[in-house]
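dumping this here so i dont lose it
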């Protein structure tokens, strides 16, 4: 009988000094209201490939922020902070020296050998779990000796040669030829976000690139390294566009109000020869609604359509319904008053422009994936499932946790 192969130990190391010449206390600077070191910790702990995470720092405040982030995620046991010696904590210290020291400390403390070691930089605020998974898997499971995140780059690079008789020249092109972008070979830019190395090879070579280096492509829009205040300002401006929108939890919500057509259905109506209308609903949505009701959340179906099918579906789900409503926002406000529920504690799910007044009233407006563009733009969160294909089940999983899978039920 073949024995299962032991999973390799993959250690992610985050160097996070307390000092910085370009940006004081840089690794505690906030982007998207989150300190840079916490952003890196969250990405590493979210990785399916990473076994443990080490933050190597000379600053107690950095270690405290990292530990608090891990505790908030319920991952305190996987986060370790290493006091970096003064000799490798200055401006001239290399990241490699910090990683080697962190790896030695981890192995000595926990009596566990590291198979793959990662270097993840706080200064790349938009590093993702997928970036970390990519470099780690390249070494741990795909046979590379080292790996680095890269992004496509199509710029023309120049070198200033003014110090040597104005010999300015192109680096990745012949300045006498201006080829079209599609005629040039693609260049790849090292992002500086994440690296992975075979641990034994790293100990031997003592630098991050050796043997076969895998190139893990990432989104060029996320490539940004913070070295000075201007970089930090750019990161803060980009965060609302690049950071995933937070999803609501049970603690955020006191009630759930659902539109019907286009959210619990796919927005199509079938009409028979006698003019009777029928719609298709998703069994998974029924399960999600039942789970929300069982959890004690007040529910309401609110629909503009005056249609027997809406009332019939609400009756089967055992959910109150208001339908044939022209001003859904006024109906929603009145219902909140009657239930003594603050509108800002209501999650409202919609798909079309007639839901926008309710979006303005509810604290958690949510659009289904198939919603009108203007509705998606106004939402605080958007489902990955279209209306009628498990979107309500997905929302129930946001609120009630992973015991409710978001995989649509056939």
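and the seq i came up w/
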């Amino acid at each position: 009988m073949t024995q299962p192969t032991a999973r390799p130990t993959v250690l992610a190391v985050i160097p996070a000094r307390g000092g910085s010449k370009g940006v004081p206390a840089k690794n505690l600077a906030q982007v998207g209201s989150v300190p840079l070191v916490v952003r890196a910790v969250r990405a590493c702990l979210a990785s399916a490939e990473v076994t443990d995470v080490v933050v190597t720092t000379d600053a107690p405040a950095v270690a405290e922020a990292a530990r608090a982030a891990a505790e908030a995620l319920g991952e305190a046991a996987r986060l370790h902070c290493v006091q970096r010696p003064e000799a490798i904590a200055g401006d001239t210290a290399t990241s490699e020296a910090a990683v080697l020291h962190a790896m030695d400390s981890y192995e000595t403390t926990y009596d566990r050998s590291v198979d793959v070691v990662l270097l993840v930089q706080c200064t790349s605020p938009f590093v993702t779990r997928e970036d970390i998974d990519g470099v780690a898997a390249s070494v741990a499971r795909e046979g590379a000796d080292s790996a680095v995140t890269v992004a496509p780059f199509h710029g023309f690079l120049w070198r200033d040669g003014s110090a040597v008789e104005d010999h300015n020249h192109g680096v990745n092109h012949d300045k006498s030829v201006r080829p079209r972008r599609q005629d040039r070979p693609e260049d790849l830019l090292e992002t500086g976000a994440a690296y992975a190395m075979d641990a034994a090879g790293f100990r031997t070579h003592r630098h991050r690139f050796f043997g076969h280096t895998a190139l893990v492509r990432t989104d060029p829009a996320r490539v940004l390294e913070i070295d000075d205040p201007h970089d930090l300002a750019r990161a803060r401006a980009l965060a609302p566009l690049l950071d995933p929108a937070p999803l609501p939890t049970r603690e955020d919500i006191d009630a759930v109000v659902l539109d019907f057509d286009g959210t619990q259905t796919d927005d199509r109506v079938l009409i028979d020869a006698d003019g009777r209308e029928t719609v298709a609903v998703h069994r998974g949505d029924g399960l999600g609604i039942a789970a929300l009701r069982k959890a004690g959340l007040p529910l309401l179906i609110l629909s503009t359509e005056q249609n027997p099918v809406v009332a019939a579906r609400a009756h089967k789900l055992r959910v109150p319904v208001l339908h044939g409503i022209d001003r859904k926002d006024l109906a929603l406000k009145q219902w909140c008053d009657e239930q003594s529920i603050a509108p800002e504690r209501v999650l409202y799910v919609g798909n079309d422009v007639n839901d926008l007044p309710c979006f303005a009233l509810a604290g958690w407006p949510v659009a289904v994936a198939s919603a009108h563009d203007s509705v998606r733009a106004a939402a605080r969160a958007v489902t990955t499932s279209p209306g009628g294909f498990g979107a309500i089940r997905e929302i129930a999983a946001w609120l009630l946790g992973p015991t409710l899978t978001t995989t649509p039920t056939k």
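The longest helix spans residues 95-110.
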